[in-house]
Amino acid sequence: MPMSALLNIAVAEPSAIIRSGLEAVLKRIPGFRIQIIEIATAELLQETLRSHKPDILIINPSLPGYYTIQLLKEETGCTEMKCIALLYAVADHALLRPYDDQINIYDSPDEIRHKLERLHTSPEEETENEEQQTLSAREKEIVVCVVKGMTNREIADRLFLSTHTVVTHRRNIARKLQVHSASGLTVYAIVNKLVELNDIKL
């Protein structure tokens, strides 16, 4: 995601005080340039969504006259729009099921920022992030060798690689897992069932 992503957010909430307060919080969130579209009544909801096509709709589920999220998306042509429920108190889980997330009026700016970041991450970015965390079959082999106490030279001989290639693989493993010690790799290998406890060289 860009360092300063442009985000159009519609806020559908009958209370002007809550709309203004939420707008003030949203505009102070780092990493985004947020444009707020205020919607005060259910009567204005469809018309405003059709004309502005926001990225995200933050809506009070009890907005008078308001109806289902799916129908709202279809009738306004905002099928890709993410919808966040704006809550004042604990709500029924069944009521919240159609929403992508929820914001409570007591949430901190950091909590709101994390929710926006998650919703604004594209499927391509999510896939890229997942790939960065996933080890290849060769990298898993090297993790097992390290956990068994083998040196880079021994690993290279075992896997028919150059020592330089082994070092490069280990660097990539450390970057992906954010683990920079043999003990950390041991924990990873055990948790992911790459080795048994009796395989480990103590």
From TrEMBL:
Residues annotated as domain HTH luxR-type: 128-193
A Gene Ontology BP annotation from the UniProt entry: phosphorelay signal transduction system
CDD domains assigned: LuxR_C_like
Keywords, in A-Z order: DNA-binding, Transcription, Transcription regulation
GO molecular function: DNA binding
Superkingdom: Bacteria
Residue intervals of the Response regulatory domain: 8-120
Protein name in the entry: Helix-turn-helix transcriptional regulator
Organism: Parabacteroides merdae
Lineage: Bacteria, Pseudomonadati, Bacteroidota, Bacteroidia, Bacteroidales
